[in-house]
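ok trying again, last paste got cut off:
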Amino acid sequence: MKSENDLSDILKLENQLCLPLYAAARLIVQAYGPSLEKLKITYPQYLVLMFLWEKDGVSLKEIGKKLYLDSGTLTPVLQKLEASKFITRRRSEIDDRIVLTFLTKKGRELKAEAIEVSYSLFCSSGLTVGEVTELRDCVKQFLNKITGKCHSRERAIA
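nice, full thing came through this time. structure:
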């Protein structure tokens, strides 16, 4: 059994994964801010649009799963995108309980401008393509593990 000192080390900020991930996420969103402001969209709206540029005509559930967002968070984002004429939503012809989200012409056209957003952030990061890829893959692996059931203490420390 671990001593109380060993267990209290768990709470030291320097031993945490959550702090650097939180800080990095916050700073990335902040860095995207000025570019997205020019496009008249927010960061969550940008994420939704990126998914729709990959796969148009998807349900709220699919978008939420892909972006790790619940419907309560996602619905206002979609409403604002629809009000800005970037997307349209309509009921599925197969199952009218499902509402599908589609890009409008305006939403599809925004993609060309948005390419510059990600590119400029990448350039300002100072990281190589390999470093970005490695970091992204590690974070994806972590997300895959943490979104599973977390039963042990060792896995819970993040």
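cool. DSSP finds eight helices and three strands in the chain. The beta strands are 58-59, 87-91, 99-103.
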